[in-house]
Amino acid sequence: MVFTIMVFEYLLLLFQVVVYKNKMKICCIGAGYVGGPTMAVIALKCPDIEVAVVDISVPRIAAWNSDQLPIYEPGLDGVVKECRGRNLFFSTDVEKHVREADIVFVSVNTPTKTRGLGAGKAADLTYWESAARMIADVSKSDKIVVEKSTVPVKTAEAIEKILTHNSKGIKFQILSNPEFLAEGTAIQDLFNPDRVLIGGRETPEGNKAVQALKEVYAHWVPEERILTTNLWSAELSKLAANAFLAQRISSVNAMSALCEATGADVTQVSYAVGKDTRIGPKFLNASVGFGGSCFQKDILNLVYICECNGLPEVAEYWKQVIKINDYQKNRFVNRVVSSMFNTVSNKKIAILGFAFKKDTGDTRETPAIDVCKGLLGDKARLSIYDPQVTEDQVQRDLSMNKFDWDHPLHLQPMSPTTVKQVSCVWDAYEATKDAHGICILTEWDEFKKLDFKRIYDNMQKPAFVFDGRNIVNADELREIGFIVYSIGKPLDPWLKDMPAVA
């Protein structure tokens, strides 16, 4: 009897070893905003797949293995904690997990070049090339390599050449699988995506690789939502999607300037326009401008690609989307300064919200940076409150050069210069105490519920509110005593007397 039990236990152990050895392994290089959440959801939805997220940043991996994740995203914490240690692992042992993986996702930084050919527009593929060379160097078995970063069209071809010329007989298939996540709703976007796009070579080997990745997503995504294309279409689709979305924001923001000049209400205009089923209501909210890690970078990349392919008119068209975005931020700053007797020198301005949108702590390309720098240029004193952004991050953003943010953290300035005119507080009431004006730059829900009578009583008079997100009831605030500016809305009589400088 004892012998029978021992044999059974041995066979069970042997079975587990065989299953474990045959278990598909996925590795993602890059534990950032894309890699971390995407791999966490794959691990949750595919318990039969072992998923490893690797990064050379020790602090970042330590954070992923702690109770305080390195990024804030609603729902992410629960997903990670359910899978971590079971079939989801975070590690700095990059080479080991790449070597063992069947599918390697690459989600590394692709910053905009700051010098050399294409500076200010072209994507810097230094980190992508380094990752490709490492994959080729450590691999001992055939692999599917998946582009997850947003990359220029034809990047796959370049990566393919690197892998092929360093393959030592190992076969690699390159796929493009761009992400279409919106921060603040990333987990829901991953759970229920509009589409999953997979691009590959139109060869038997390429089709087989596409099918392998398709089967991963098919664990939870309906087959009709998994789209397959050639490599170049997949790469370009990501840039095109972000360009179209940014274009809509710039379009409504351009209209907001005209609304202020004519007395129209941009909210009413955009509602009427959005009722047209050919247009739809999404991304038609006027604001101080768009931000985030992708829009500006991807449009600049698109501009560069157009210029390289002899399409200057097309390049100029997309440049205008960014120009309007910059115009909107400058217009907002000018409105603040001109409304307050044409100077904010030594005046306290409360900044409510620093993240580029609500429900995220991400400050990459946030409009708040340019608005704050504009006010600091006129020697304002800023008191900043954001529920998810640390003082260290605010100071880092306000002192970094443009595009520095998109390099890995360990390559960014370690000790940014502290901007003495800036203080960060963890309470909206403290931020607004003794302030001359308030700038609302992020649409956090809590800002809609503030006791503005209490705030008004503790501010310098006249007290100003500059609503860069159109989230407050301007009429109610005017009844309290505020002078209110809402983007694209009929102007307060006070503001008509003090027009923004163009």
TrEMBL record:
Cytoplasm keyword on record: no
E.C. number: 1.1.1.22
Keyword set, alphabetical order: NAD, Oxidoreductase, Signal
Limits of the UDP-glucose/GDP-mannose dehydrogenase C-terminal domain: 350-474
Pathway named in the protein's UniProt entry: Nucleotide-sugar biosynthesis; UDP-alpha-D-glucuronate biosynthesis; UDP-alpha-D-glucuronate from UDP-alpha-D-glucose: step 1/1
Enzyme class name: oxidoreductase
Catalytic activity: UDP-alpha-D-glucose + 2 NAD(+) + H2O = UDP-alpha-D-glucuronate + 2 NADH + 3 H(+)
Signal peptide: 1-20
Pfam family, one: UDPG_MGDP_dh_N
Annotated NCBIfam families: NDP-sugDHase (TIGR03026)
Family note: Belongs to the UDP-glucose/GDP-mannose dehydrogenase family.
Protein name: UDP-glucose 6-dehydrogenase
Organism per entry: Gossypium arboreum (Tree cotton)
